[in-house]
Protein: tRNA guanosine(34) transglycosylase Tgt
Amino acid sequence: MYDLLKTEERAKRGRFQTVHGTIETPVFMNVATVAAIKGAVSAQDLQQIETQVALANTYHLHLRPNDKLIKELGGLHKFMVWDKPILTDSGGFQVFSLAHRRKIKEEGVYFSSHIDGSKIFMGPEESMQIQSNLGSTIAMAFDECPPAMADKEYIIPSVERTTRWLKRCIEEINKLNSLETTINNKQMLFGINQGGVIPAIRIEHAKVIREFDLPGYSIGGLAVGETHEEMYNILEEVIPHLPKNKPTYLMGVGTPENILEAVDRGIDFFDCVLPARNGRHGHVYTNNGKLNLFNKKHEKDMDPISKECCCPTCQRYSKAYIRHLLKAKEMLGMRLCVIHNLYYFNNLMTEIRVALDNNEFKSYKKKRLKSYKNLN
Structure:
């Protein structure tokens, strides 16, 4: 299922076989929360910019249009016209992000919908049932994502509950995968390591969940308030205690710099809303750093965002034109920026894989990090 092709110190170059195709790792997953990338980017666009995996969200798709409707219509792949792998987040992050709208109990989490205030309950079984209805390639275990800086008194019982929830997720997904009516009976489950920024708790939790022998493991509860140095320290402490022959996924991260540092520490999978979110605000990534296309200096600049970029945006359009669209609030401006940014992240991962293939990752990382300091 996961072939570890080679390593460079802790950095891993892998290949992950799934029912919806092969994933070359390290990989960045483009975030399609409600089965679409914000910024008017279609599944066809994702194909064109060489996206390997799309990520969708269990909580949001449960609310609208509803996972049972998606199942009735043939599943998420058919619904969004995407034939490559899809990973669905379990709803566990919403336990963190919607803290003012939820109440955590042993059985699960009671939410007030952010759309209309209606009452919603989601526990491990419900999360697995929703993800099974969606038919995603990879389902994430339902967990609590605690605040990064929470103290031991909060973290310890939270992590213990997350472990109990993982056991319930495993039982439920195994049951669902055995049913004839299940859309994808080869759906895989990834477990999630939690523990805030307390290394001892993180390490102990990693040792516990690795015993379940799941197809993959993720590290959650980072990039939620701690410093980059604290995040890197946790990765250094925890990753050696997760199976090397399984993919590791750093949830919700990050910037190009974060990705390079995390790959160096052994991470295979990434996702983040930043490329799309920044693109919608006219902030675009280049090998020399990030540009703000609203800046007046781009008003007469007929060059592309990056002369070395092969994305559809840079092959056709100038910074001056895109800036005009953004200033005029034309959606095309946002779309062009988002497409560029997603291509940039996908291509960054391609370059990382090539560097690993050639045993040149350390030098590639050093060169790229140095170039990012040239611009803000």
The chain has a mean pLDDT of 95.
